[in-house]
Specification:
about 170 residues; alpha/beta; 7 strands; about 40% helix
Length: about 170
């Protein structure tokens, strides 16, 4: 299995620790793992685990309430993200795409083409426009969704079918 793993942050928060643990698990299964994350502390940690690591432009964005400038920056960065992810997919015939967090779901879905898309949600998305975009993408792609708790599944359902969501608590190998 060749997996492209994508994260929206490189600062080390809980989701990024979970991302590292997931990468260790995938590599431990013998998978070929390629990662794309913003430049920062997560990137060098992934270099010791993954077959390749690419710095991906994402942000900076304000937390929670985005500004109009954030929306413009997001729109401006999306085509470059898609291009970078497609390049990785072409260089390393990727079988599936795993995206950790909502910011890069649309870019990952576009770049993935017909490959399976796996979305890992660690928290509730409270910004309505972001939630609508993520819901649309997950539905359109019939994506597999991982949630870090039953509470996190609440923002996903509906419209994401409950049977496409698997709860895997943080800290579980």
């Amino acid at each position: 299995m060749r997996l492209l793993a994508i994260d929206q942050f490189s600062e080390m928060g809980g989701a990024q620790h979970g991302f590292l643990e997931a990468m260790e698990g995938f590599v431990g299964r013998g998978w070929e793992v390629h990662a794309a994350v913003p430049d920062g502390p997560l990137l060098p940690q992934l270099e010791t685990l993954c077959d390749s690591v690419t710095a991906l432009r994402c942000g900076p964005f304000r937390s929670v309430n985005k500004t109009p400038l954030d929306a413009c920056r997001f729109a401006w960065q999306t085509p470059g993200q898609v291009s970078s992810l497609r390049r990785i997919i072409a260089q390393h015939p990727i079988d599936a795409v795993y995206v950790n967090g909502p910011r890069l779901v649309a870019s990952a879905a576009i770049a993935a083409g017909d490959r399976p898309l796996i979305f890992h949600s660690h928290s509730v998305v409270t910004q309505p426009s972001v939630a609508r975009l993520v819901h649309f993408v997950l539905q359109a792609r019939s994506a597999t969704v991982l949630a870090s708790s039953e509470f996190v599944t609440q923002w996903l359902t509906p419209p994401v079918p409950r049977d496409s969501i698997q709860v895997i608590y943080n800290g579980i190998a």
